Amino acid sequence: MVTDCGPSFTKCFLTLLNFVFFFSSSAILILGCWLYSHKESFMTLTQLGLENQHVQLPTEVAKTIQEINQPLALEQLAHGLLYLGGFVFLVSMVGYCGASKESRFLLVLYSLFLTVIIGSQIFLIGITCAYRYEVERSTKSLLRSSLENHFSVGEKPNAVSLAWNFVMAEFQCCGVDNYTDFQRSRTFLDTRSSHQMLPPACCILNQEQYPPYFEPEDSNCLTAPTSYNSFFLKGCYDKLFTRILAHLNPVLITIICLVTLELLAIIFALCLSKAVDRDLRIQEHEKRNKNRKKKKKTMAPPPKEVCQSPPAYVSQPSEHVSFLPVASAPEVLPSVPPPSYFKYGN
Questions:
Q1: Do 174 and 233 form a contact (C-beta atoms < 8 A)?
Q2: CATH number of the domain within which 220 lies
Q3: Which secondary structure element, helix H or strand E, spans residue 140, and what is its range?
Q4: Is residue 310 part of a domain?
Q5: Are residues 88 and 107 in the same domain?
């Protein structure tokens, strides 16, 4: 466990940050599961809350929620919430467990996740700046595709239709370029009434009923649009692009703050991982030293041998040395007088 001031601060920061995202993503997942499995109960509860004023909301917000409260729109919203909540839940869970449990593997994995996210953001920003005109054409093509394949009119609109209706009503525009975009929309042509040329959101709406209802002031707008009763010649793409440029500074500040927060999380995760590795090495070293000291204490001294050998000054015969037997004293012969000299003759 880290005990220094710096690693302890990084641990607290990562734990708190990921706990906030973990709690938020859990709420998003629960809401997405509820909408996906029991959207009827959600619709009923929302309707009762708005009618009985159990939840005090502004009038425009309440009307907007009432308009969005449609089965198909809620089902598509549930898919988006599940995807977003699942991804944020996974990343935040890895970061929270890695910081709280001081797991080097989870901290490194968390850093890799954030690195991929930051790399994707920088890549998209770079592509947008380098290939601005190509991005504009691709964006226009994507918007037209959403109109041609998903936009419909009727009592139960989907999420794409609701989004387009609110954009056209708020920005007072019609289609991507103009109303002719709806003439190529297969889903619009299948769900429109006879001789209808454009959706009601392209008309000048009755302000007493909008939001949430899209009721044109002139009933002839749907079949005979003019510049006096509709915005059929004004495209939404240019107005959207102008609005984005007008609010570019807040968008850039938000992106910079988000990237800065992600970079801080990566740096803190790597620093905490390094501190955990250092503490583990110190603990292993101390454990080895304790084991060595313990072994030295438990080892008994060698027993003292009783000296049975004779003193050093007594010489010991060697086993390999053989001694000659001691000769006995010679016998003493009786004294014999020396021989006399014989004289032979004179």
A1: yes
A2: 1.10.1450
A3: helix 132-150
A4: no
A5: yes
Structural domain includes residue 325:
no
Pull the structure tokens for residue 132. 């601005």
What is the per-residue pLDDT across 50-103, written as a single tens digit (0 to 9) for each?
566 555 555 655 666 666 666 666 777 788 888 888 999 999 999 999 888 888
On whether the CB atoms of residues 174 and 198 are closer than 8 A, the answer is yes
Q: What type of residue sits at position 134?
A: E
CA 164 to CA 159: how far, in whole Å? 9
Our measurement of the distance from residue 201's CA atom to the centroid of its chain's CA atoms, rounded to an integer in Å, reads 40
Question: Of the candidates 94, 80, 73, 101, which has an alpha carbon nearest to the alpha carbon of residue 28?
Answer: 80
In a domain, 211, yes or no: yes
For residues 63 and 39, membership in a common domain is answered with yes
- Distances 155 to 59, 71, 162, 181, 192 between C-alpha atoms, Å: 22, 11, 11, 22, 11
Q: Report residue 72 as tokens.
A: 């198909």
- Would the pTM of this model clear 0.85, i.e. be above it? no
Q: Which domain holds residue 210?
A: 151-246
Report the domain count for the chain.
Answer: 2
317: which 2 tokens?
A: 């015969």
Which whole-number Å values give the CA distances from 218 to 204, 215, 344, in the listed order?
Answer: 8, 9, 199
In a domain, 184, yes or no: yes
In the chain, the N- to C-terminal Cα span, in Å, equals: 136
Domain end (from 227, 261, 281)? 281
**One-letter amino acid of 197:** M
C-beta neighbour count of 235 within 10 angstroms: 20
